[in-house]
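Hi there,

I know you've been waiting on this one. I reran it after we fixed the sequence typo, so this is the corrected version. Both the input and the resulting structure follow.
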Amino acid sequence: MNRDSHNRTKRTARSATVLTGAALLLAGLQGPALAAPSPVAPEPRTAGTAEACHAVELSSTAEGFTAPASTRPGLTTFRASTTQPGKGWIGLARLKDGKGWGDFLNALSRALSNTPSDVPQGAEDLDETATLLGGLVIHPGQPGSFTQRLYPGTYLLFDYLAAGDAEPRYRRLTVTGDAVDQGLTPTATVVSKNVPGAGPRFEVHGTLRAGRPLRYVNEIPGQVNELLFAQIKEGTTKADLKAYFDAMPDDGTLPPNSPFTSVSLGSLHLSTGTSSVVQVPLERTRYAAITWSKDATDGIKLVKKGLFTIVDVE
């Protein structure tokens, strides 16, 4: 890759790093800046909680990103925290044979681009480069965990918000050794899928509980997708959300009069046919379940096509 192409890729990736929502949501809120909500008190330790799992510790600070170089195959719980605003959304991807960080960054930036015409080819190239296995949208004082089944091979752990920086934060993770089989136990499952006659939709099965794990499954063919939760103003309806999303331009900016009252928490992108069990500090209140992902066929935001819903966390 020549210098001009490399710089262009970095610029594209830098613009892509704000697509997933927390930075956008916070920028679109009206009034004074919001304080981060108090973390939900952890549940007592049992055999099904994160404390009993085979765990990998991840940390993002002003000094950098810390992650192990290797771990064992099987169910693995990644525990992540960040102390630096604007950094620390840790994603996981499994590289396909012969692919490296540069290939992955180039495809990811185009698949998530704010230029709709870039998205279809970017999504196709991303599918040929790596399998996205989720990750976490978190903030300082609001750590999270996610469980993923790993197989022997090479993975990338990367800071989504720093992917386009001059010194991107990523680590290779080699999976080798004897398998383990312990992970987080979800209380609910959220599925993104295409509903005949309706389009892409989220379906919720079970009960979402504050501070407890949930399973996210992406069943939309040929489409990487994320799952984010943002608190909404009292009285907000699905019609209100639809009107807000319909007013969003393609350049990634947010219209005024946001219905959201918090930054977002949740899962980073999953490839089609994959799932992740995620635990983030949701509170007992009403949220919008949303995505800022673009339709891989035409680059249009999936929320404009109905991929959002309102959920109550108990």
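Quick highlight: Residues 3-312 form one domain.

Best,
R. S.
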